[in-house]
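Notebook, p. 212. Picked up where the previous page left off. The plan for this session was modest: take the two constructs that came back from the sequencing core last week, fold each one, and keep the raw output in the notebook itself so nobody has to go hunting through shared drives later. Recording the first one now, exactly as returned: residue sequence, then the structure token string.
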Amino acid sequence: MSDETTGAPSAASTEQPRGPRGPRGPRRSSAGGGGNDRGRRGPRDPQAGEERAEGELIDKLVAINRVAKVVKGGKNFGFAALVVVGDKKGRVGFGHGKAREVPEAIRKATEEAKKTLIRVPLREGRTLHHDGDGRWGAGKVMLRSAPAGKGLIAGGPMRAVLEVLGVSDVVAKSKGSSNPYNMVRATFDALKRQSSPRQIANRRSLKVADLIGRRKDGASLGEVASEG
């Protein structure tokens, strides 16, 4: 006999309506980022960096890591950021900052980078005057000048430094540690050793035309600078 005749409630009417929370709890939203965030780190691949213009200077984020400070009650987590700054006209600097939040760490690193700017002489505003090597700790890098149209052949932190410096034709190679801090400092060590023909001529009491003539004869500017 049907349910209408007996007056018994049907199967559909016996089910209780579910509330906003089901038996498995609330569903996590991929856009909202809810749920447990223990062990979550910052950006996994910061090599691409974040670039933005502030007046004449351009800052690029090289690396960001989550750090922890062990205290009596447990651990205080924060972030450490490595930023390079340049005007793409021969000035470049780098800085390191730590804070509880990522934006504050980047701001501290940017402010420190602006205080440590150095000027690097460029050849024709596109490449280096001569080849050079740099070293910092276990980091070893090699920089080579290149003809027009070669392009910027570099990767990782070295590329970020050379981009904000303003060079467009350079071949760079890292031969040591892949730690971004060591690589950046080693790159700066190589850039600080760069010399222009005018600087070498003043140091050796020569004329710039003489140095340029010797370069055309086959000697590199680095070999000319090492003579005497």
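Okay, moving on. Second construct, recorded in the same format:
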Amino acid sequence: METDDSGRGIVDAIGKKGHRVSGYQIVDDDVGDIQKAVISGLETSDAVIITGGTGITSRDVTIEAVRGIADYEMTGFGHVFALISFQKIGTSAIMSRSTAFIVKRKPVFCLPGSPSGSMLAVSELILDQIDHIHHELGR
């Protein structure tokens, strides 16, 4: 976690809003490893937040990994995140594939690896809507 500025920032932001972080891990860019980590994380928490692997390089496999175990995608998350990203950083926002899924009736958010991008999603979308998302999912 010492070199994971995005992960550290997310953990801090979640704690400041009064939510509890039940786990944290760094996972290789491997579809199977990502899927195992998500399933494991959902066993002890009400949501999973992933940073990294949402770009356009060949090693960016987070979206494909989570899509493979998802019940469905929350496409609105990606649309709104793209809009607010565009407002903050301009046209570079088109290179992010950030999105969210529902896996086992719990939200899984796939965010960019950059600290500014991941914190934008957490502070302006996730923490603002997580209680409503859980309500809609019957949690």
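Notes on construct two before I forget. The chain has one domain: 5-136.
Flagging for discussion at group meeting.
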